Fold:
Amino acid sequence: MSGSIEVRGLSRTFHTTVRRPGFTGALRSLVQPERVAKDAVSDITFDVAPGELLALLGPNGAGKSTTIKMLTGILTPTAGEARVAGVVPYLERERNARNIGAVFGQRTQLWWDLPVRESFSILRDIYEIPKPEHTVRLQEFDDLLELSTFWDTRVRHLSLGQRVRCDLAAALLHDPPVVFLDEPTIGMDVVVKEQVREFLRHQVEERGRTVLLTTHDMTEVERLAERVVLVNHGRLVLDGTLDEIKKRFGSTWQVRAPLADPHAEAVALPGIALLRREGPKVVFGPDGPDAPAVHQALKRVIERYEVTDIALEEADLEDVMRAAYVQAEAPESRGGG
Amino acid sequence: MAVLHAWRAARVTPLGELYAPPRMTAALIRLTVQVILVASLWNGLYQQTGTTAGIDREQAVTYAVMAVLASRLRELDQYAGRDTVLQHMHFGTIVYWYLRPLAPQRYYALRALGEQLYGFAWALAGFVLSLAAGVVQPPGSAAVAGVFALSLLLGQLVLYYVMLVIDQFCFWTLRNGAAMLILIFAQNLLSGVYAPLWFFPDWFITLSSFLPFQATLSVPLSLYVGRIPLSDAAFQLSVQAGWVLVLALFTRFLWRRAALRIVSQGG
Structure:
């Protein structure tokens, strides 16, 4: 199973008609439409190794879904190239389809009026999966996702969590080496989310599948991904491990210390910024690339000030990503897809 | 060839209906009421006259009832099953049609085949019952029956492609509600479901001859009741085949263009 993803200078420009405001504007747009080009994805380059789970992150409209649609062969790039499991997806759609599985958020690929198992049977035929193989795989998915309690129910009667679990199974029935998941756990409760995460971890670690995941759920990223690609305004902002992201964008810790003398003056220390003062309490955070590690910061604060207590708060990934999105703002505004 | 293995996709509509008994009951009631009303109407219209527009009462009733039954062959319900191009475009699930090793056009054809076979089962059951009840007349000869079957098949192919064109509009317009309403009206009027075409003025018949609709039902039913003689059958069949060819090429072109128009949804 070789499921690498190679992306080189991938770009996609959409041409849309600008709708002018007001009645006159709408009329003018009708008679004399103004076409504008929007770069949804610009010159993105990254690789995903076989058996790796990569989180493709970015704010809404950053170009994540457009990137996934090009890698699944749905969209053709304006420039650049991509290979998924050795296949150029947009040139060989049907061949690529055998190598990939995909789940797009709450959009189901199951047949609404039929019991789930009928949907699985239709997919078995479409992908030409041998029956014994299909049975074994379905059993495996049932063990992990507990599908058999509702797989004889019609899709229209399933809850969101049940449906997404079925969609995940449907996407993997043909044993694809590469899986694209576009916000798969959106809107799901924590129990089902955890079950899905466990399923994905199993698919990566035990089955060696390559997974490209987009999500806004940072808990999911922390639990599943070691590497992250961050895009914003269609451009790649960062490609690195979670630790690297935290180091680059994270005010990753805050030290809170009430001073013994509430009127004592507090100042910044080398590599440590004074973030704010809350009455007798002072709050310090890292200052620039030379900021010390947490334990050193604690030591320096205690050495410099007489404190009655000291508390350490480490910023979570959500804070880090928020900082990353803000800092990564491009000067010009571009649309996403 | 994935299309041969994917035959189960043809079962989607019949299975969906079987899992929804109220829908089947509604279809049964609607069809029964339509057949009874249409038979009563045409019997009533012919009560004071022997032959009108070249056909007698039995021919007219047979034509009208069979038109009702045949119109059941392809259910024009855009919302049942949530598996239409319109709905997939609306919900953004059309992407899955392009993520499978089965081309969207083949999947669409399989789904339509299943739908038409399901409709055919209804129409056949209705025909047998109507025949047994003496509401419709049997075909004049085995040759008429054979030509009718062939013409009906071609007619269904024409209808399939006309429906496909309307569905393909969704790739450009996202919605096709207005086009579908026009199609249903035009199909029923110009194919002779509302009334046989020979009751319309000459200019109307000339106009409709340039459109594909009369090839769907009017031609096969006219052959069945003998309004079109067997000697003209070859010409009529070739016209139907011509429409099939033209529409097949046109829809093939549209599928290619549509593949470039998959709307990107979401960021």
Notes: Chain B touches chain A through 34 residues (CB under 8 Å). The mean pLDDT of chain B is 87. Chain B has one domain: 2-259.
